Amino acid sequence: MTTFESLLAEGAAVPVEGWDFSWFAGRATEERPPWGYARMVGERMATAAVALDLQTGGGEVLATIRTAPGVLVATESWPPNLAVARRTLAPLGATVVAAADGGELPFAAESFDLVVSRHPVTTRWDEIGRVLRPGGTYLSQQVGVGSVRELTDAVMGPQPVGQGRSPGRAVAAAEAAGLEVVDLREASLRMEFGDVAAVVVFLRKVIWIVPGFTVDAYRSSLAALHARIEAEGPFVAHSTRFLIEARRPAR
């Protein structure tokens, strides 16, 4: 096989369950947000009594906390991730529950004093407001508008940029759910892809960048990307992130 074909085959063979990105070491890089989401989650978990991690993936971020609350619950929608999360979070004594990303949460009202979520596919602010106790906190790092749009456009051609993930809309939705936004931060972060195999794995793993991505469907675009990387060096894109923290007012 040609080098291009070998890279495609390699990228297509890498497992993509969970949110472990260690495979990308030496193949791709992404600048980290300055606020340190995992550290912030760890600090808040250390003082929480009952906490919930929404859309936990494989539980990789939650597993980094040093002190777990007395009751710790996580949700995940994708069956392969559920199995990974249950193994990963077992040392913390966490319960992992299957729950659709955009559906109602399977918990009673006012169940949690802390809810967290990293990169949720969708945010049900009404449900977050319902399950938070008075005085409880929601902390989330979210994907912003136009994230990695350079890669989307390179693979699919120029695409319109929607506003559904804007910080302003998140603030409005949080307030409509009766929450008070106490922190909001934004960042644009440099990404580099060193070869087309890294591009393939990323697009298989982060499925909203190129919806419906398959190697066969986008072979010609991947060939052009491969030639560009070979000629110019790593392909550069930018991810957008925002941090939002909201509280349910105390009675």
From TrEMBL:
Pfam families to which the protein is assigned, alphabetical: Methyltransf_11 (PF08241)
GO biological process: methylation
SUPFAM superfamilies hit by this protein: S-adenosyl-L-methionine-dependent methyltransferases (SSF53335)
Organism: Longispora fulva
Entry protein name: SAM-dependent methyltransferase
Keyword Methyltransferase in record: yes
Entry keyword GTP-binding: no
InterPro entries: 23S_rRNA_MeTrnsfrase_RlmA, Methyltransf_11, SAM-dependent_MTases_sf
Methyltransferase type domain segment(s): 52-138
Keywords of this entry: Methyltransferase, Transferase
PANTHER family: METHYLTRANSFERASE, METHYLTRANSFERASE TYPE 11 DOMAIN-CONTAINING PROTEIN
GO molecular function annotation: S-adenosylmethionine-dependent methyltransferase activity
